[in-house]
Amino acid sequence: MAQGDKRSRRGKIANGSYGRRRPQTSRKAQRYKQRGF
2, 5, 6, 11: which has the highest count of C-beta atoms within 10 A? Predict the structure, then answer.
């Protein structure tokens, strides 16, 4: 699912994401989830 996140950008990081692309590394992804971006 992480591979296809680049196509559908909206709502992939967290429920408060503004169409942002998920970070390529899982560490950043977890950090984004905690911050709510």
Answer: 5
